């Protein structure tokens, strides 16, 4: 689980009167060229960090691509204009979420294809949550996908442990049989 995201999601569920800073919070008092420079700096630094250190660019590509696709899908499905579902992608909150929250290196997959699928899954979960009018969908979609991933890992490890347990029992049984038949052979 992404610790920052689970903290935010838990707070939003347990304390519904708590709100989050509106998306324009980061840029409401700047104008002109600075409106472009701040998001550009965040994108440049986020791209550099995720390319050079965390290696999570496939996850980001999956997330952003699937986010755009789910926006188009919802627009076509419900016959609504295309621009509103795409508009969150232009905000600083989305950019921060993309480069620093969804791509958390400790809680996301390591293999490139798995990273891509993880990003797609978060975007799909976001789309479903929006179809049911769930607010703060970015945080809840990431929490849902991280939870499902954790459950999947638990089940895989549990099954592997059970298989190991059974193979150990089978090995012990085979060793006992062979020791028994060796002892019987010596008695004859």
Helix content range of the residues, please? over 70%
Radius of gyration equals: 25 Å
What's the shape?
Answer: elongated
SSE series: HHHHHHH
**Extended strand count:** 0
Overall residue-averaged pLDDT value:
88
Assess the beta-strand content as a share of residues: under 5%
What keyword list fits this structure?
188 residues; mainly alpha; 7 helices; 0% strand
Explain how this protein is built.
With 188 residues, this protein is mostly helical. The protein has one domain (3-187). Helices cover 74% and strands 0% of the residues. It contains seven helices and no strands. Helix 2 (34-54) packs parallel to helix 5 (92-101), helix 3 packs parallel to helix 6 (112-131) and helix 6 crosses helix 7 (137-187). The longest helix is centred in the last third of the chain and has 51 residues, at 137-187. The chain is elongated and about 100 Å long.
What would a concise description of this structure say?
With 188 residues, this protein is an all-alpha fold. 74% of the residues lie in helices and 0% in strands.
